[in-house]
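Listing 4. Sequential folding, example run.
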Amino acid sequence: MNRLITSTAIPARAVKIEALANMTASFESFCLASGIEALAEMMENDAQTACGPRHARGKNRRAHRWGKTKGKIGFTAAGGD
């Protein structure tokens, strides 16, 4: 009779910890991408309100679609400071 000498046990705790870390990283990436997309939509809506449709010309326009400013938008990962 042949006996198995190789352990088939999976280190369940280590696998769960790794899966949780991967899931957390994926969720943070999803949140960051979703936040960037939401900000882009909000800024485009603000530009549309102030300037009218893209490439439109008109006397009633209150602003232009160009310029720059210094600023920061922060993102803190879960569990971060």
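-- end of first protein; second protein begins --
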Amino acid sequence: MGSLRILVADDHDLMRRGIKTIIESRKGWEICGEALTGTQAVAKALELKPDVAILDISMPELNGIEAAKKILKASDKTEILMLSMHYSDQIIRAVMDAGIRGYVVKSDSDRDLSTALENLASHKPFYSNRVSDVAVNPQRRNGAGAAKKSASRVTSRENEIIQRLSEGKSSKEVAVLLDISVKTVETHRANIMRKLELHTLSELVRYAIRNQIIEA
């Protein structure tokens, strides 16, 4: 294995330090950048063009899946390794649909991280054992039920708005952050609630926590 430039994005300092310890133990592997939020991760990835970007799925400002979509669109040679505390079918499907080819459950990172990075460096997928069943099983990946189908129709922009609203920001604050009008935010919000069959902000927050868009 030759050199490997890796971006690490996780808002938990202890997790970042653990990842760095594993990476720095390998000859030729280097941390080329670090980020604490999804927005920072995208900016760093576009600037540094890492071989692999390790993204926590739940990050402030922009969750890991939406950050990965932006990175993959702008830097097609960068592979994404998603880290998560959980491995629900719905979240794994969202990861697969985003074109992310690496997924490691955080509790397995001591065992799986190096192997995952080796695979991704060779542009081969890697999923933790507890994830791989969903990843390779079409029936489980396709899922069923109106709620899941509705969720799959939520756009990347709507997911950004879900995250900001669930983090407690007002429509005006979201508009400023995303450089759109308040009216556009309100239109997106109405579409989100209709698609997800939700009626209150508290229901939206629970949806965001359940799908790891934000942390509890």
